[in-house]
Amino acid sequence: MTAPDYPAKPPSVRALTTNKGRCRFNPNIYASGKVCFTWRGHPGEEWSSAQGLESILISIQSLLSNNPYENEPGYENAHTAEDKEWKVSYVEKIRHENLRIAVIEPLESSLGILPHGSTSAVSERASEDDDDDGEGQTLSEDDKPVVDQFADLRKRRFLWYFDSYIQAIDAADSDISRKRKFQRMPFESQGNTMDGHFDYPELRRRVVLLREKIICETHNWLSEGLGAKKQELGIASNLQRQYEQIVEDLKRQKNFAVDLELVGTNPFLWAFTYFGRPMSHLDGGIFRFKIYISPRFPDEQPRVFVETPIFHIRVSREGVLCYSPRRTDEMRYHIEAIVAALEEESPPYDPRTTVHLEATKLFWGSTEDRKKYNRALRQSVEKSAE
Fold first, then answer.
1. What percent of the chain clears pLDDT 90, i.e. is strictly above it?
2. What is the pLDDT of residue 38?
3. Fewer Cβ atoms within 10 A, N terminus or C terminus of the chain?
4. Which H, E and C letters describe the chain, residue by residue?
5. What's the mean pLDDT in 205-221?
6. pLDDT tens profile 130-168
7. What average pLDDT does this structure show over 293-322?
8. Is the dihedral of CA 168, 171, 176, 180 positive or negative?
9. Which pTM value belongs to this model?
């Protein structure tokens, strides 16, 4: 939060992901929400009006290191055998609680999933309404529900990273016994600690359920969309016009790499076929996608699923495409970004787009690893045309 006299005075920073004040995620991020850091990493440094929000964000990011144990003052050079054990134990419990508190619980809340796995009454009624193919639904452009765009971002990224979560859970579960209590660190005190126990099998169950619910929500957009089309709401006609304009533009540009059509005349579900361009790494491939569009577009962003198996750094094992449009409010930018994500041959490394762990490791590994990646990609390209 910024004060009225910002930037003369520094903004205040408060952590909100604290499990209601019960979890200290870092030596510098207290359970109370207090965040302790220096603006440029120099002890005793004072705030300067020449600094901005970027310096604050960089400072916060620096706290989230691979070795948070050494963030505690006085532990910067702690290298005894006991310290090494503490470091491992600290990272283990942070990883567990990061999944539980920062990934799983916010999504369960937005999807109406109760802790034991059932859904709230409101969520169940919404699901029942969505199952009637648009019949009986009364949608109104003047009474749109408020969309939590951050929740939508969480859902899309959860689908991107689902396989990463599962692999992390399975790896930890093989090393850490269930119900083992978290080890309290020397610098943690009552009321400002991270207490609890490990339960990776339970986390796995909840992660799998989350994916099922998000996929179900995505499919329910189609019946909602048919209801919007039946009532001749603006979003339905707008998407229809956007589709027709994109198809016309592709024809005019003689772009033979992309083919678009509506599935069952539903403007909320687009079938996208990509034909690999000659002399490219996708040459000869034929890849089919489904683009699911929310009736609350663009507040809720499309979700793109790859139906043709492909070994690609931007496609998860579960067939979810990771892409970032330069503008989110028009579908033509999404189509453009989908093609760019597929065709880019030398993208810069960005951990946010790590959705296929094996492909990522090979692509940004050694020269021999890159050759293995290219071979695996070509094999999937050749198989797609069979």
1. 75
2. 67
3. C
4. CCCCCCCCCCCCCECCCCCCCCECCECCECCCCEECCCCCCCCCCCCCCCCCHHHHHHHHHHHCCCCHHHHCCCCCCCCCHHHHHHHHHHHHHHHHHHHHHHHHHHHHHHHCECCCCCECHHHHHHHHHHCCCCCCCCCCHHHCCCCCHHHHHHHHHHHHHHHHHHHHHHHHHHHCCCCCECCCCCCCECCECECCECCHHHHHHHHHHHHHHHHHHHHHHHHHHHHHHHCCCHHHHHHHHHHHHHHHHHHHCCCCCEEEEEECCEEEEEEEEEECCCCCCCCCCEEEEEEECCCCCCCCCCEEEECCCCCCCCECCCCEECCCCCCCCCHHHHHHHHHHHHHCCCCCCCHHHCCCHHHHHHHCCCHHHHHHHHHHHHHHHHHHCC
5. 98
6. 444 444 445 555 545 566 779 999 999 999 999 999 999
7. 98
8. positive
9. 0.88
